[in-house]
């Protein structure tokens, strides 16, 4: 039986808002592998991961309790064994956990971006989790979509096909274009830097 997957449109779309229940912070915490992406910056990278760690919440302008995440992206180039990392802090845009604003740390502290979870789920018959993330465009990068998995092997071919089909069903020209630009991010399992600090 084919997987039935439904994804919401990003808030940047002109489509009507969709009510849904986003994943809790505990679900997001951990290491996620970028298995497919439309973002050009990953086309010449491999073993791309995003590690989220829950931080103490902060208080918004209207006294809202906003969740925060420590966000570390790690990757290797196609030819180097050395890992590079990008670190930032994610702050939820509201009291939910679907829409986030990222700000870099260190020399990237003036760099910001916005990302949203369009959907998440579990590969049937396995403990493999997946999530689809939309990134709004910035002055440094175009808009894009990543498919994440808590397994470096990603989801099954059937589930991947269902995710891609769900993306194309979002009646937004930007999302449809990004869905057609998805490519597989190379994952060869070859690691270094003390096995990337013992897998963080």
Task: Label this structure with key terms.
200 residues, alpha+beta, eight-stranded antiparallel barrel, 9 strands
Describe this entry's structure for a reader.
With 200 residues, the chain is α+β, with helices and mostly antiparallel strands. It contains 4 helices and 9 strands. An 8-stranded antiparallel β-barrel has the order 1-2-3-4-5-6-7-8. The chain starts with 24 loop residues before the first helix and ends with a helix. Residues 196-200 have low confidence and may be disordered.
Rg, alpha carbons: 16 Å
How many beta-strand segments? 9
Q: What separation lies between the terminal Cα atoms?
A: 37 Å
Secondary-structure-derived class: alpha+beta
Give the strand content. Answer: 35-45%
Helical percent range?
Answer: 10-25%
Secondary structure tally, helices: 4
Shape: globular
Largest sheet: 8 strands, antiparallel, barrel
Strand/helix succession? HEEEEEEEEHHEH
Task: Show unreliable segments.
Answer: 196-200
- The overall pLDDT average reads 92
Strand order of the largest sheet: 1-2-3-4-5-6-7-8
SSE order and pairing:
Layout lengths: L24 H4 L1 E8 L7 E15 L5 E13 L5 E10 L6 E6 L7 E11 L6 E7 L8 E6 L7 H12 L4 H8 L2 E2 L8 H7 L1
Antiparallel strand pairs: 1-2, 1-8, 1-9, 2-3, 3-4, 4-5, 5-6, 6-7, 7-8
Could you give a short description of this structure?
The chain is α+β, with helices and mostly antiparallel strands and 200 residues long. Helix content is 16%, strand content 39%.
